Amino acid sequence: FKGVPADYAVTFATAGSRGLKIADSPEAKAFKARLEKIVAGLAKSGHGKAMQVAVKNATGLDLESPDTCFAGGLSLSKEGSFTGGLIIRARHDSAKLAAHAAAKNVPSLSAGAAKGWKAQELIASLGDELGQAVSNFPAPGQDAAENKEDIGVFDIDKDTLVVAQPKEAARIIGLLKGQGSSYALPAAQRSAVAATGQAYAVVSVNAAKLPASAELAQSGFVSGLFAMGEKGSDQVMKISTTFTSKEKAAPLAMQAQGMLAMAPMMLAGDPSKPETAEEKEMKALAGEFLAGIQPVEASGNQVTLTAKWDTLKLYGIMEKIVAIGATKMKDMPAPAKK
User: Fold this and answer.
1) Which tens digit of pLDDT belongs to each residue from 278-334?
2) Could you tell me how far CA 300 lies from the centroid of its own chain?
3) Measured between alpha carbons, how far is 202 from 182 in angstroms, rounded to an integer?
């Protein structure tokens, strides 16, 4: 979380996937190749690859590198606006990026001494598909003067990019240089993350930094955590919620355990109604997924849900779901031409 401001209400971080079975193994590469074959022929199925090539050609940044990782977060106001930032830790070619921005006349920005460019215009310059996608991005609220700045992409060094409004980017850059204290997970959350093995994705919520409300105070919610990691041949998930007291935690624990107990019955459905082969397969896949979820653990003021899936079995579940979705899309009638 180095570089992520400590006053963010929601923070996240990913780790590089090098050496992990889930993303950087012969099985992972074979799984990806099978998925690409399944979706081949679908409308826009090749656009993602084309966008990756466009990004690499313009910036030298390889989005599929197992060493690429991200960190960031955001703060929320009572009015619903947000301030935040994204740190991209990825090897790229600074000279190539600057040359591309100059050639495309992308407007420049500054965050202190750091130079950058307007993010929306820079992303749009990489191709029409990216331009269309970025036009739908949410923007920080415009109700406060400090939120009227454009979001920029700032090139810090050959391994680091920061995406934020200039003032926030300057703060993040300072933290990256060791000027101040970055966000740190609470002790209880650190132990939960460690229990996932080699963690590769973490999201943390700090209630003390959320906008105050009567409902939030009444709930007793203190913090929340989502973490994914790899332990041996398994993918491990932890979802942990902390409250102000055991009594505040009890309702969530009971509700979560009740939902888990009800899930198999809901999957069973009405035996008197006929099911298609696709419906039967989807129920079987849901059953396999649910089998990996362990009973809810309530310990004092903390409620934790743990799930564990064998990596190869998880590949199988995802592959079948994608195959079903691809078949449905191929069977859909083409939209009428105007």
Assistant:
1) 888 888 888 999 999 999 999 999 999 999 999 999 988 988 888 888 777 776 665
2) 29
3) 16
d(CA 76, CA 7): 10
Return d(Cα 285, Cα 257) in angstroms, integer: 21
Q: How far apart are CA 241 and CA 250, in angstroms?
A: 11
Closest by CA position to 305, among listed 261, 267, 256: 256
Tokens for 321?
């779901």
Structure tokens at 40: 């081949």
Distance CA 69, CA 75 (A): 21
CA distance 120 to 146: 19
Q: How far apart are CA 138 and CA 84, in angstroms?
A: 12
DSSP 96-163: HHHHHHHHTTPPEEEETTEEEEEHHHHHHTT-HHHHHHHTTS----SSSGGG-SPPEEEEEETTEEEE
Letter for the amino acid at 231? K
Residues in the chain: 338
Euclidean distance between CA atoms 84 and 117, whole angstroms: 17
Please state the pTM of the whole predicted model. 0.85
Which one-letter amino acid corresponds to residue 238? K
Q: Is 114 left (phi over 0), alpha (psi -120 to 50) or beta?
A: beta
Q: How far apart are CA 242 and CA 236, in angstroms?
A: 20
